[in-house]
Amino acid sequence: MSAQVKYTLDETQIPKDWYNIVADLPSPPPTVLHPGTKQPVGPSDLEPLFPMELILQEVATERAIEIPEPVRDIFRLWRPSPLIRARRLEKLLDTPAKIYFKYEGVSPAGSHKPNSAVPQAWFNKQAGTKKLTTETGAGQWGSSLAFAGSLFDIDVTVYQVRCSYDQKPYRRALMETYGARCVSSPSTETESGRAALKENPDTPGSLGIAISEAVEVAAKNPDVKYALGSVLNHVMLHQTIIGQEAIKQFELAGDDPDVIIACAGGGSNFAGLAFPFLGLQLRGGRKRRVIAVEPAACPSLSRGKYAYDYGDTAHLTPLMKMHTLGSTFIPPGFHSGGLRYHGMGPLVSHVYELGLIEARACEQIACFEAGVQFARAEGIVPAPESTHAVRCAIDEALRCKAEGKAETICFNLSGHGHFDMGAYINYFAGKLVDVHYDAGELAMALSLLPAVAAE
Amino acid sequence: MSAQVKYTLDETQIPKDWYNIVADLPSPPPTVLHPGTKQPVGPSDLEPLFPMELILQEVATERAIEIPEPVRDIFRLWRPSPLIRARRLEKLLDTPAKIYFKYEGVSPAGSHKPNSAVPQAWFNKQAGTKKLTTETGAGQWGSSLAFAGSLFDIDVTVYQVRCSYDQKPYRRALMETYGARCVSSPSTETESGRAALKENPDTPGSLGIAISEAVEVAAKNPDVKYALGSVLNHVMLHQTIIGQEAIKQFELAGDDPDVIIACAGGGSNFAGLAFPFLGLQLRGGRKRRVIAVEPAACPSLSRGKYAYDYGDTAHLTPLMKMHTLGSTFIPPGFHSGGLRYHGMGPLVSHVYELGLIEARACEQIACFEAGVQFARAEGIVPAPESTHAVRCAIDEALRCKAEGKAETICFNLSGHGHFDMGAYINYFAGKLVDVHYDAGELAMALSLLPAVAAE
């Protein structure tokens, strides 16, 4: 009963460098292409959108990139985040498996997203940026960038996917409390938004459309830069502090995970936990199972095509090679807005192609069942996105039980669900259904993928 | 820039005992009286409501009471809570003062309340209790007892003050996620509730009425016990782990607070931080200023009478000597539901009468201004109740600036405001007003205080 459950590090143990998995991969990820010329982009092509330091991180090949001290200083507010042994859940499942979770909900915005929002805001500040635009689905990223903007006195405008904007007034209020401006997307403020509204005035919006709006504003205004909360290499890089801390915490615990699990939309919380462990393996360490969990309604790794595609709906972003459902694919509405994206981050797609990780798709209701089971055992109500990782961890623990194996499972609890209780209300009211995409629409979107000679 | 901001303890440093200030006070607090006979109550009088272990804690005189190991085991999920130096806020205020806050929002329910909910549920479980009733104003206590009930498999019914029930569906959803049943109070389920509805069908409810309902159900059903989230001695006792941890953390920081601040409704988060420091003083240590911050709309310490009064509206509870606005006083509606109570905990009232602490009343708008300023500087959005402590801490830091004094200020950030963003929405929309009680109603309520010969 009284065995240790929480493995904490003191703030001197916040990682001093980000870990860049590119340095350890057997082959580099495919290059990014210019949307017009379809030739490889150079750093200068990205300058309208990002400060040069972030562009250099995007294409970096060195293993370790130093975290600036002012960024670590802000991380001290909530990092290192705890690694917690879910002993009550283990007991409830009557499994011989040991279940640990890394809890990122302790950040001010309630998720892992500030791990990248803070350095992005800081590098922008150093480059003289006064205004940032971004998009948000669930609201986790938007509120994190709003928080980071307030610390560095940068104006932040967030294009929030309409169905999220309407369903989650509290998320919007959080962004406004941090001083950001929130706009329902598609909006009438941009060409991309007006085009989307013209095509379908009743659209629930999508991350793809919201990205188009935010990118458009930055591209057209020299004093505005853009920030993205997932997908890109530098975001994956920033999140690797999660896995680096977890490795130290497992040493403290005298344990070592056999299975590593995280939900994956664009892939950043997944990469954050998984890449440092994969790095150990790539440098000669033992092999672990690493599972990316997707929503069945938007399964880019499991059902998408590995191909060059745009990151947004209006085709303003560079072309990235990734697992994609097609940039014209509008995922059906479901309660994990952070996982409602047509593509998967290029680095995550690349390690999937290399056979280093597995993918699994889960249905919505089964995820909420797992979320409630977890909340009643461990006290923390997971964000809808994070329930995908919980579902998979419970399923793996039950497999261990069936097989009589005492494996060690570690999952990333990427955020709490305090702003998502509307989804839990629907779940308890029996109003939640398992949402599926239209196979014809998916086929159509995949048929519209851009032709790229380089492939 | 890079000086330490967060003082963490490892889980072995969770206090092993609760601290009972009664052992160190120059005089004992006045005894509690039976509501019928108006004679001192004995332990057996309280048995219909509470398990004997909690009753013994209520009247305990020893300084240290051991925390059961299974309770400490659950505390490990989030304790010790961090002590954080608010360096960005200091800089923003340009004050020579040092500002620290103890952050209790890291608990699964988002406030300090689980510190008492968990031991109350545990002692009930040991005594064989299968069902618990309670009341909740802001929802912090109700969700904490729901959480604790889920851990020990106890059915929990929460009478939630109607205006809170209507305004905060997410709080209700959180309680239901933990498996509790939530009832809008006044309800038709109890005599007390029906009487209140008969008197005023449109009543917003009050903690006093909700307590009556929960107590009535426990008193009438032998298999049901009652749990209270503040006011009583054993609740103050449970919360003292906050101040005990803070004392150790100030040793780590090489600092020592000159001013200690917490908001006070029933008084439990205030007592939790303040009593261990007062204990040092009572045992010969130095004197510190200790400030209890109340809402101007419900200022029991500042404007109430120190007299015997009931804890509830229907007069089912014992009579306690406390600073009270009168048990028939219905506080006006404002956004800090946790501070909307007619009385102050007897132990807090007693130390106020002994001159050991100060009281200060703050207006609602000024509190939200402070809350937003704090959120933009330190990232954490405070619960409306906690903004009262933030307001006072900022005012003290500005006083230090005016006086050129480098004092050390410590306040209790008792909870986060993620479930209270509706209040922030009103604040930003300019819809928030400073609420005042009706002086005539207060005078009437005070004139109706029960006559007690013992006074």
TrEMBL record, chains A, B:
Q: Which residues carry this modification: N6-(pyridoxal phosphate)lysine?
A: K113
Q: Provide the Tryptophan synthase beta chain-like PALP domain boundaries.
A: 76-415
**What are the entry keywords?**
Amino-acid biosynthesis, Aromatic amino acid biosynthesis, Lyase, Pyridoxal phosphate, Tryptophan biosynthesis
Mention any one GO cellular component term assigned to this protein in its UniProt record: cytoplasm
- Residue spans making up a coiled coil are none
In alphabetical order, the GO MF annotations are:
L-serine hydro-lyase (adding indole, L-tryptophan-forming) activity; pyridoxal phosphate binding; tryptophan synthase activity
Q: Which PROSITE patterns match?
A: TRP_SYNTHASE_BETA (PS00168)
Q: What is its EC number?
A: 4.2.1.20
| HAMAP family cross-referenced by the UniProt entry | Trp_synth_beta (MF_00133)
Q: What does this protein do?
A: The beta subunit is responsible for the synthesis of L-tryptophan from indole and L-serine.
Description of how the protein assembles with itself and partners? Tetramer of two alpha and two beta chains.
What name does this protein carry? Tryptophan synthase beta chain
Q: Which organism is it from?
A: Rhodoblastus sphagnicola
